[in-house]
Amino acid sequence: xxxxxxxxxxxxxxxxxxxxxxxxxxxxxxxxxxxxxxxxxxxxxxxxxxxxxxxxxxxxxxxxxxxxxxxxxxxxxxxxxxxxxxxxxxxxxxxxxxxxxxxxxxxxxxxxxxxxxxxxxxxxxxxxxxxxxxxxxxxxxxxxxxxxxxxxxxxxxxxxxxxxxxxxx
Amino acid sequence: xxxxxxxxxxxxxxxxxxxxxxxxxxxxxxxxxxxxxxxxxxxxxxxxxxxxxxxxxxxxxxxxxxxxxxxxxxxxxxxxxxxxxxxxxxxxxxxxxxxxxxxxxxxxxxxxxxxxxxxxxxxxxxxxxxxxxxxxxxxxxxxxxxxxxxxxxxxxxxxxxxxxxxxxxxxxxxxxxxxxxxxxxx
Lengths: 169, 186
Ligand SMILES: [Zn+2]
Known about the structure:
The complex is a heterodimer. By secondary structure, chain A is mainly α. Chain A is built from nine helices and no strands. Chain A folds into two domains: 1-85, Rna Polymerase Sigma Factor, Chain: A (Orthogonal Bundle), CATH 1.10.1740.10; 102-169, Arc Repressor Mutant, subunit A, CATH 1.10.10. Chain B is mostly helical. Chain B has a domain at 3-56. Chain B is built from ten helices and no strands. In chain B, α3 crosses α4 (33-57). The longest helix of chain B has 27 residues, at 91-117. The model of chain B is unreliable at 83-94, 114-125 and 128-186 (pLDDT under 50). At the A-B interface, α2, α3, α4, α6 and α7 of A face α2, α4, α5 and α10 of B.
């Protein structure tokens, strides 16, 4: 038995949460635009990982798992929300909650406009963009979540930014 | 603005996005004030766009998030342990009980066969045996474990030595996901 082997399941799970929580939250937040919902999804993602922890002992596997699960759960949540509301009012309700230093009215307006423009993007471009803007997410991470090659991630990201730039006034 | 300028709309967008100006555009910019200004405007917009994009995903969970998750996981783990314990401990008893039930069924079948066909049979149908085996090996906690949102991912988990990232499953998965998204839009 090595020292690593003697680390308890609870301790290593706790470490994994510390390493991943900010990113996992941001993945859900990027999709949902609501901090409370994003936190709920992040928690569900970690609990799901905990239930399958025997197969996710490896830090990289854990990271890939929670990235993917939180994204998929967030998409599911969003679809459920959209089904309940008309598409026109969905974005008014899912308002971004910009907190801290970025909380100025101007910044909030800018973020709100950006969310609306992102909503108008083709699905495939939007998903790549949503994942790419998460901190510390490399093209390879985005590709792993969506199951597409890194090159495709880059070209879709470029296409998404181009459409957004064109739409900007 | 000349026709030549209109044709350069895409090049200007590309230049603003990548920060690189191709040589033919460079030459044009040297003699066209209008396009120089357009490029400058696009660059400012691009900076604003990227700032906004960063803010869309910015932030983190509440400070007590970690504690809440670990607590919830421990609670779920204890519950699971309790269930596992309940199912595992009487496993032998369950097996014995099932064997008794199977024997009783065999006996019942034999009696029925004897009465109706006047030909006693001690054999169970293969389907019954298969069903019994299945039931005897039934382990609810394992089934419950597999019923998580990451089921597809788990069932496709790589074997030893395989790389997690290279899973083809991702592509299939994405297609399913896309289909579901399309359905959702209908
Ligand atoms: Zn020009």
